[in-house]
């Protein structure tokens, strides 16, 4: 149990877990890039793990891109876009507490849509979105439950 | 709830004041340049090849895993095929063994038929060879069926012999089969003669379901165990001098001066497949 806790509480372990799951899912869904997991990881690490070091997260993104064969900068662009959207929302929109429980999900969805702009996947957009959102939802709430 | 309001309050979801927006923007622009740059250069390729996991480790692992699963599957498939082949070969062997047995039976049948034909040609001009049918006659001992009947000019009363001697008499005839009553049957009577010291002694022989008996034979006749008895014949069906059997036992009878003679029949229908019907 200790080792499990260590993996999910440690950001590096969490990243390794994310990478492993991404690799496994990529080996199954070989025709589409699964970006949702790294988006979830970014949101979770940045907002819940208080990982304020942008450089660390960018290095993670760099490794992730290289590992999965994406173009360098792809996942980091999504991450930075999420932070910028977060800044914008904080600046221009006042969110009430009642609504904020969906805030990370909005950011994740935003990241996913931005990834579509960067790399428009296939003609099968709807199934792609559904699969990504389901995987992302499960992964995010798993992290919220076990890795906080 | 996973995202309860209380927990979120304590988290720093909206308090990222340490992150500078200018730095973020700058990083965003740099990243965008990197992303849109031509990444087929040696520099990027070398980094990518050192980081890339998909085409090496995981793919290698997955490929080998698939190969391993395939190998195991092939092994079990091969084993199953072998078992099936073995089963088929065993069936063939069984079939061939049966064929050999049938051929052996045929050879024996042929030998027996040849033997009967020789007897027929040698001794009985007007006779026919019949096969014993493997059907139980309805509830009577010492009765059996043969495969010749009216269509072969068989009549009730005809005598049936094998290569050792008289075996029985036809009592019922149908179109293509006949019923034979053996001489061992209890109600079978036959006149015969004992040949003792080249002198015939005529007597009446009766079946007793196991052997034949001469119920009363005078003690004055010098009979011995092993003496043969032959048919005396009649004018209708029974020919003369057919071997009936041999004296097996001499028992005392109810009458003081007479023996009860037990005769062991020479014929044995149990060992035969073919018989000769004398017309």
Could you list some keywords that capture this structure?
heterodimer; A: 148 residues; mainly alpha; 75% helix; B: 279 residues; Thrombin, subunit H; 6-stranded antiparallel barrel; rod-shaped; disordered N terminus
Overview of the structural elements:
The complex is a heterodimer of chains A (148) and B (279). Chain A has 148 residues and is mainly α. Chain A has one domain. Chain A is built from 7 helices and no strands. In chain A, helix 4 runs antiparallel to helix 5. The longest helix of chain A is centred in the C-terminal third of the chain and has 22 residues. Chain A is globular. The mean pLDDT of chain A is 79. With 279 residues, chain B is an alpha+beta fold. Among the domains of chain B are: 55 residues; 56 residues, Thrombin, subunit H (Beta Barrel), CATH 2.40.10.340; 78 residues, Thrombin, subunit H. In chain B, 37% of the residues lie in helices and 27% in strands. Chain B is built from 4 helices and 12 strands; from the N terminus they run ααααββββββββββββ. In chain B, the strands form 2 sheets. A 6-stranded antiparallel β-sheet of chain B has the order 1-12-3-4-5-2, with helices on one face. Chain B has a 6-stranded antiparallel β-barrel with strand order 6-7-8-11-10-9. In chain B, strand 10 and strand 11 form a beta hairpin. The longest helix of chain B has 70 residues. Classes of the chains: A mainly alpha (148), B alpha+beta (279). Chains A and B meet through helix 2, helix 3, helix 4, helix 5 and helix 6 of A and helix 1, helix 2, helix 3 and helix 4 of B.
By secondary-structure content and strand pairing, the structural class of chain A works out as mainly alpha
Shape of chain A: globular
Strand content of chain B: 25-35%
Number of strands of chain B: 12
User: Could you give the order of the helices and strands of chain A?
Assistant: HHHHHHH
**DSSP helix fraction of chain B:** 25-40%
Average pLDDT score of chain A: 79
Classify the secondary structure makeup of chain B into a structural class. alpha+beta
How many strand units of chain A? 0
The most extensive interface between chains reads:
A-B, 44 and 39 residues
Main sheet attributes: strand count, strand direction, barrel closure of chain B? 6 strands, antiparallel
CATH superfamily of the domain at 189-266 in chain B: Rod shape-determining protein MreC, domain 2
Give me the strand/helix succession of chain B.
HHHHEEEEEEEEEEEE
Please, what is the average pLDDT of chain B?
82
Mind telling me the CATH class of the domain at 189-266 in chain B?
A: Mainly Beta
Low-confidence stretches of chain B: 1-16
CATH architecture of the domain at 189-266 in chain B: Beta Barrel
The end-to-end distance of chain A, rounded to whole angstroms, is: 15 Å
Tally of individual helices of chain B: 4
């Amino acid at each position: 149990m200790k080792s499990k806790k260590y993996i999910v509480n440690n950001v590096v372990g969490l990243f390794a877990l994310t990478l492993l799951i991404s690799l496994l899912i990529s080996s199954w869904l070989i025709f589409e890039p699964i970006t949702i997991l790294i988006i979830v990881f970014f949101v979770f690490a940045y907002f819940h793990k208080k990982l304020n070091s942008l450089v660390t997260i960018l290095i993670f993104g760099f490794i992730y891109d290289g590992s999965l064969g994406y173009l360098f900068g792809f996942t980091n662009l999504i991450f930075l876009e999420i932070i910028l959207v977060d800044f914008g929302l904080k600046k221009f929109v006042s969110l009430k507490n009642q609504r904020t429980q969906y805030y990370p999900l909005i950011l994740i969805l935003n990241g996913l849509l931005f990834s579509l702009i960067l790399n428009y996947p296939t003609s099968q957009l709807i199934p792609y979105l559904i699969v990504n959102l389901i995987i992302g939802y499960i992964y995010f709430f798993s992290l919220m439950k076990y890795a906080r | 709830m996973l995202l309860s309001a209380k927990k979120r309050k304590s988290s720093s979801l909206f308090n990222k004041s340490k992150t500078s927006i200018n730095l973020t923007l700058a990083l965003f622009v740099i990243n965008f340049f990197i992303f849109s740059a031509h990444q087929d250069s040696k520099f990027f390729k070398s980094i990518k090849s050192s980081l890339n996991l998909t085409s090496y480790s995981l793919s290698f692992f997955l490929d080998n895993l698939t190969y391993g699963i395939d190998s195991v599957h092939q092994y079990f498939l091969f084993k199953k095929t072998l078992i099936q082949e073995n089963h088929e070969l065993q069936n063939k062997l069984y079939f061939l063994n049966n064929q050999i047995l049938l051929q052996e039976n045929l050879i024996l049948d042929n030998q027996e038929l040849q033997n009967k034909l020789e007897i027929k040609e040698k001794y009985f001009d007007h006779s026919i060879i019949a096969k014993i049918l493997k059907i139980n006659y309805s509830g009577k001992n010492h009765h059996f069926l043969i495969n010749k009947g009216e269509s072969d000019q068989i009549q009730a009363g005809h005598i049936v012999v094998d290569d050792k001697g008289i075996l029985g008499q036809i009592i019922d005839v149908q179109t293509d089969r006949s019923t034979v009553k053996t001489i061992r049957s209890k109600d079978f009577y036959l006149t015969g003669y004992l040949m003792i010291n080249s002198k015939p002694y005529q007597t009446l022989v009766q079946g007793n379901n196991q052997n034949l008996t001469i119920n009363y034979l005078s003690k004055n006749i010098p009979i011995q165990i092993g003496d043969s008895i032959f048919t005396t014949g009649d004018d209708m069906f029974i020919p003369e001098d057919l071997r009936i059997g041999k004296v097996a036992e001499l028992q005392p009878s109810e009458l003081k001066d007479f023996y009860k003679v037990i005769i062991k029949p020479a014929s044995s229908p149990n060992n035969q497949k073919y018989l000769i019907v004398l017309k």
